[in-house]
Design goal:
This protein is of the alpha+beta class. The protein is built from eight helices and seven strands, in the order E-E-E-H-H-E-H-H-H-E-H-H-H-E-E. The chain has a single domain, classed as Glycosyltransferase. It is globular and about 70 Å long.
Length: about 250
């Protein structure tokens, strides 16, 4: 459920009690953004157009999360509002519901209740809390506001672009690249940042190895010719190492 009615998907968590129930936890992890590329490869391999549509919506979800933040960078961990069950089971998108977002936000952040807010109307309490916690519409909580230079979103954009040739994907990825450079570049390297909801966030003085091994590799390949490490000839493992496919 999104305030701009973007038709997107996220890979969340499901807690299952065998034979009894399955409970959805709409928690989004940046790590989970690999799912769009994974589903896209499966859709291409087995010629499943419906699965390719799912892959596109998963990728669009991660792009949406990047665009939503003031820095233009997706946080490590946050919660969203799922569409009602009938929409999910039918695959249909749902309209924005401000009350549903507000109730979920208040419930997930009950610890952050200011005494002076308790006498205010619900709409004003919600507005105050969302501003205080820097939660944009559609996000109900942030478990980790950092960005660790992760590759998963760009990996999936790269894979989907190679499969579809949709130039919009490269346009969106370039905006992401410029945002990452603006917020993480230092005089000697690139660094993780602590809070994507603040422009010019404090830097963590830490550059993970996957920044160059994966994130920058996928950015490079996204703007290379399709025959540079062609997906017809190579498969990438989880650390972005290309292995030649058997013929």
């Amino acid at each position: 459920m999104t305030a701009d009615n973007s038709n997107i998907l996220f890979a969340g968590n499901a807690r299952a009690i065998p034979g009894l129930s399955v409970t959805l936890d709409p928690q989004v992890q940046h790590l989970g953004c690999f799912a769009g590329g994974m589903v896209a490869i499966g859709a291409k391999t087995f010629n499943e157009s419906k699965d390719l549509d799912i892959a596109r919506k998963l990728v669009d979800g991660c792009i949406w999360a990047y665009n939503l933040m003031p820095t233009g960078i997706m946080p490590e961990l946050f919660h969203v509002v799922p569409c009602p069950a009938p929409n999910r089971s039918s695959g249909e998108h749902c309209a924005w519901n401000e009350d549903a977002w507000g109730m979920a936000l208040m419930s997930r952040n009950s610890f952050d209740e200011q005494p002076r807010d308790k006498e205010l109307p619900f709409e004003e309490r919600l507005r105050n809390k969302a501003q205080r916690l820097r939660l944009p519409k559609g996000v109900t909580a942030m478990g980790d506001k950092s960005y660790k230079l992760r590759p998963e979103a760009i990996e999936s954009i790269f894979v989907l672009y190679r499969i579809t040739g949709d130039e919009r994907l490269r346009d969106e990825a370039w905006k992401i690249f410029e945002a990452i450079v603006a917020e993480t570049r230092t005089d000697i390297a690139f660094t993780s940042i602590d809070d994507v909801t603040w422009k010019h966030s404090p830097k963590s003085d830490k550059m993970e190895s996957f920044w160059m091994a994966e994130t920058l590799k996928y950015f490079y390949l996204l703007y290379s010719e399709p025959d540079v490490v062609s997906l017809d000839d190579f498969v990438f493992n989880t650390e972005a190492h290309p292995f030649r496919r058997p013929k």
